[in-house]
Amino acid sequence: MECEVFTLDNKQAGTVELADEVFGINVRRDILHRAVKWQLAKRQLGTHKVKERGEVRGTTAKMYRQKGTGRARHGSKRVSQFVGGGVVFGPVVRSHAHDLPKKVRRLALKCALSSKQSEGKLVVLDAAVLEKPKTKVLATQISAFGWQSALVIDGTQIDANFQRAADNLPNIDVLPSQGANVYDILRRDVLVLTKAAVGALEERLK
Fold first, then answer.
1. pTM (2 d.p.)
2. CA 112/CA 28 separation, integer angstroms
3. What is the dihedral of CA 105, 107, 110, 114, to 10 degrees?
4. Average pLDDT, stretch 94-102?
5. Axis crossing angle, helix 102-118 with helix 195-205, rounded to the nearest 10
6. Architecture of the domain whose range is 2-43+99-205
7. Measured between alpha carbons, how far is 161 from 9 in angstroms, rounded to an integer?
8. Confidence band (pLDDT; 50, 70, 90) for 205?
9. Each residue of 10-38: b (16+ CB within 10 Å) or e?
10. Any idea where the domains of the chain sit in the sequence?
């Protein structure tokens, strides 16, 4: 399929051919869901922790004699029945990451790219390069396109001036082609690819 190419000044700069097997497949929402859950699970720190019975501070002496009081038998003040005692089956420090097959990850990235293309929210730029790292200049150019929330994916290397200018803009993310992922593509409204990014992604996913 053909897609128009624009410059940063919002002028046409020809067309580019997009591979149907990367940008034109049927979008599977279940695959996208699995990929997003996998990414967020890996990102989760898992540092939540509660104190168990052996970690609560308290005396080890028996509270009262075993028999003759009419009350239940207890041998420790640090059990979960008492206020200030340990927590039973509470969260512990662990990793929430789980495996996802490589074929599923590749298919999910194709689905994410295809979904933006089918919704008309895929824009191809000739290049993402600035002469100076001026946020005001980049903000003016982005406002001309009407982008409120966008992810810009460049080739293997990002222009340093463009990166510095974009760092100060809210809801505008910049990634190299090897960092393209399902979650970041879906969380932004518009997906902006440079011609170098298109070539790198097609080579990666074909």
1. 0.84
2. 9
3. -130
4. 96
5. 140
6. 3-Layer(aba) Sandwich (3.40)
7. 16
8. very high
9. eeebeebebbeebbebebbeebbebbbeb
10. 2-43+99-205, 50-90
